[in-house]
Amino acid sequence: MFKSEKLALHLRQLIDSGQWKAHEKLPSLREQAQISGYSLITVLNAYQTLETQGIIYAKDKSGYYVNERSASQTLLNAGVHAAEHIQINSAVFHYLKNTQAAGFIPFGSAFPNPELLFNQKFMQLLAQHAKRKQSYLNNDNMPPGNLALRQMIASRYMMQGVQCNSDDIVITSGALNALNLALEALTKPSDVILLQETVFYGAWQAAERLGLQVVTIPDHSEFGLHIEAFEKALQQYPVKVCWLMLNTQNPLGYTVSNNIKKKIAALLEQYQVYLIEDDVYLELNYGGKKPLPMTYFDQHQRVLHCSTFSKSLGMGTRVGWIHARQFSDAIQHLQLMSTLSVSPLVQNALVDFLSQHHYEKHLRHLCLRLAQYKQVIYDYLKLHLPQQCKVDIYPSGYFLWIKLPEYCDSYHIYQTLLQHKISIAPSLLFRPKHSLQNCIRLNCSYELHTDIEQALQQLCRVIADNIAEKG
Amino acid sequence: MFKSEKLALHLRQLIDSGQWKAHEKLPSLREQAQISGYSLITVLNAYQTLETQGIIYAKDKSGYYVNERSASQTLLNAGVHAAEHIQINSAVFHYLKNTQAAGFIPFGSAFPNPELLFNQKFMQLLAQHAKRKQSYLNNDNMPPGNLALRQMIASRYMMQGVQCNSDDIVITSGALNALNLALEALTKPSDVILLQETVFYGAWQAAERLGLQVVTIPDHSEFGLHIEAFEKALQQYPVKVCWLMLNTQNPLGYTVSNNIKKKIAALLEQYQVYLIEDDVYLELNYGGKKPLPMTYFDQHQRVLHCSTFSKSLGMGTRVGWIHARQFSDAIQHLQLMSTLSVSPLVQNALVDFLSQHHYEKHLRHLCLRLAQYKQVIYDYLKLHLPQQCKVDIYPSGYFLWIKLPEYCDSYHIYQTLLQHKISIAPSLLFRPKHSLQNCIRLNCSYELHTDIEQALQQLCRVIADNIAEKG
């Protein structure tokens, strides 16, 4: 970040936070230079940046004044947050510990039902490679990872019309590792990144770990991503990297249209911003047709697309990747400093599994079941939830998003259900700032057996109690 | 770090770097407060710290002056280095890429000969677990990792007389991941850590990644670790964490005596410093008796001991651990934000392998071969290397450390040998500061077959040429 950008951002924060009111006079250039320790030129540049953005206005000879909050500013009510102050980690830690506890009904789990991911053929291939000395001695598991596997991943991109070759791909220890490596390669501490307002908590955790600042944009009730807010944010903040989820967004579930994706790509280029695309549910579209990754629309190598096999073949797989292109070397550097290599056994088994065309069959079967189980649970909830509740359903993934009346407290519901050995994901996990209290993400990758039905019954009862209590 | 420690460190750097000479007068307290922006009290505390350390002295009413460099300061000639300026990454990256290239004689490799690590029984167990649905669905691979495996690791500590239970252990994706997690959990950017002068490059890389400052202590020609320098460093610098390798030190090979380990433990407590112990070659002692980890001598929970199965069962294993004790939660937090889980398959197979007592047999066999191969190569080198060269050999591990005359350039030798498809590890990799030009780390885990003998012959020839050229 340039010095003047840094100063503009700092002043912007004072205005956003209400410390400086509309029509209040800003310190003169000379005063500001003294206060901030920056040069006059830097201060002038910062003031002019804010003026261009419509945040302040100049009066002849009299100086600069704070503008009225415009509609666009209200749109970005979120402002910039230092990720270090979010402290969601202990809440998330507590939550993750509970969802993995034995004997719990895992409605709160982030992972699909492992029974559905289990594939006999894949296990056989793993076992074959485990016994094959050669696949064990092979050194090809070092970064960027197994060449044959990278070729297969590249050809899957090509089938979607995305330019890609094996050198563009870096294999990682799952998607979370992929996303963290991409973010670390693209940022320095105190850089500004942009997130959707309601997101996978891992994005905030990564930002916190790397000492970044975060701008968020609100969700759009119809289109998912709020493209106007996105543009305003790029205009008004020195955003370096966006981390977005555009397909089967976690936790909300929507998939952004190609039209909006095109607009995003154009804005990335216009504002010279990079995009890390979190696309872990890539293969979980019920219609069988994968949504297009942002790399399809990106003519200027501004997108790093991250995905994984863990969401379709089991989290024990721990094999993800980054379509990293010009950043491949930088990311391999980081890998050589941290996780080193990815299991050669699993990489080799994946190569066979993909090349023998077992993967498509597995995915068809998996998506059929996910669609069916989710619909059954959705129907159950429509019938048994209090009428004040709304449930969002989309034709992909395995989550439902339950919206309770605004006065409800889903964290309280979460705590009550823990006593019944049922986990859910309360909405505050997905919004550390501007807390969202009244929603629940529900993992629906389970068949409506007796125990699941009893747990749903319990869930509906606890929700009804919460409504009755608070309403 | 306290403000006064920060200031003292900054002034210390000015003195270390020679910007302030002996008997030069320091700015007055008031002047220093103005220059530095710190309060008078902070400046006074900083000056008093430096006075206690003998770096500066006070003259009545006249102020503070820089002292002559004492013997202890000369001992710590290294000073403090911001890890960000080291830039060894591209050298290391280049080196690692070459050592993994197909068809190269891997004298430069950090990993033992995979043929020696291959164990039929372990492969069978892996294959069995790969086919077992239950071991795939098991959720026990999430942090802190498989309970049974943690119990086995704990009992191995207990057998050495180290207090340990399964809750103290966190399973990681190999040792490099373990060491990085431990360092990240214990430090904040700009903290000072202490390293040995000649070390595994991964320590510097980790420090660079986390924005730390590094103090180094010189090696001791007889005892390996220079305990006087160690104490002086803790006395004179605000060291927060030490990262040391005391058993089969990489690259030098020595193992520190129990007597010195006791002294280290006492100093850690006295100066309230934590130690991350890198002990990856733990099991590779030829006598069969493992050296004691620092946790054995540590009465005050100041040691985090890191090790791995990758150096004895193959790097594809990717299973390491931290004896993390009170830091277990903090480290699991970091894992949940980054690598998440470790392969459940490998963890399960390790449990069986250990509980069925295959591991000890494997290690006995492995160490016998390592001892034998290293001795044969050592004897070859003694016979064929120019007489100006010295070779260090110790009864553990699989490296030899070759010392060429000081005017030799092992990086040049490295580059020449690459053209012959032979890799070596030149000494500059292990000393980014105060560069060490004239040594070579040689991986000796290979039997003296024709191709290895030819490569050794070539190595001796290129070394002789270098000596002739430069001498």
From TrEMBL, chains A, B:
Keywords tagged on the record: Aminotransferase, DNA-binding, Pyridoxal phosphate, Transcription, Transcription regulation, Transferase
Gene Ontology molecular-function annotations: DNA binding; DNA-binding transcription factor activity; pyridoxal phosphate binding; transaminase activity
Domain annotation HTH gntR-type: ranges: 1-69
InterPro entries linked to this entry: Aminotransferase_I/II_large, HTH_trans_reg/aminotransferase, PyrdxlP-dep_Trfase, PyrdxlP-dep_Trfase_major, PyrdxlP-dep_Trfase_small, Tscrpt_reg_HTH_GntR, WH-like_DNA-bd_sf, WH_DNA-bd_sf
Keyword Transcription: yes
TM region positions: none
UniProt-listed Pfam families: Aminotran_1_2, GntR
SUPFAM superfamilies reported for this sequence: PLP-dependent transferases (SSF53383), Winged helix' DNA-binding domain (SSF46785)
Homology family: In the C-terminal section; belongs to the class-I pyridoxal-phosphate-dependent aminotransferase family.
PANTHER family documented for this protein: HTH-TYPE TRANSCRIPTIONAL REGULATORY PROTEIN GABR, TRANSCRIPTIONAL REGULATORY PROTEIN
Name of the protein: PLP-dependent aminotransferase family protein
Organism of origin: Acinetobacter tianfuensis
